[in-house]
Amino acid sequence: MIATGGKELVQVRQATVRFAGDSGDGMQLVGGQFADIASMTGSAICSFPDFPSDIRAPAGTLGGVSGYQLSFGDERVTTPGDAPFVLVAMNPAALKVCLPELQKGGIIIANEDEFTPTNLKKAEYESNPLEDDSLDDYRVICVPMTRLNDEATAASGLSKSQRARCKNFFALGMALWLYDHPLQPLLEWMMRKFQRSAEVMAANAASLRAGHNFANTAELFRVHYQVARAKLPAGRYRRVTGNEALALGCIVGAHRTGRTLVYASYPITPASEVLHELAKHKEFDVRVIQAEDEIAACCAAIGASFAGSVGVTGTSGPGLSLKAEAIGLAVMTELPLVVLNVQRAGPSTGMPTKTEQADLLISMFGRHGESPAVVLAAASAADCFHMAFESVRLATKYMTPVLLLSDSFLANSAEPFRIPDPVSLPDLRTGWDLTPGDFAPYRRASQTLARAWMAPGSPGFEHRIGGLEKEDETGTVSYDGENHAKMVRLRAEKIARIASDIPPVEVVGAEEGDVLVVGWGSTYGAIAAAVEQLHQEGHRVAHLHLRYLNPFPQNFGQTLGRFSRILVVEGNCGQLRMMLRSQFTASFFALNKLDGRPLLIREVRTAIEELLKRE
Amino acid sequence: MSSPLIDEAEKSETTGGDCLRILTRKDFQSPQTVRWCPGCGDYSILAQIQKILPELGIARENFVFVSGIGCSSRFPYYVNTYGFHGIHGRAPSIATGVKCANPDLSVWVVTGDGDGLSIGTNHVIHTIRRNIDLNILLFNNRIYGLTKGQYSPTSEFGKKTKSSPMGTIEQPIRPIQMALAAEGTFVARTIAADPNHMRQTLEAAANHRGTSFIEILQNCRVFNDRAFEESSAGKDTKDDRILLRHGEPIRFGTGGGRGIAVRNMTPQVVDLESGEASVGELLIHDAQADSPALAALLAALEPPEFPVALGVFRNIERPTYDELMLSQIAASTVQRGRGDVAKLLNSGTTWEVD
Question: Is domain B8-235+319-336 in CATH 3.40.50.970, yes or no?
Answer without folding.
Answer: yes
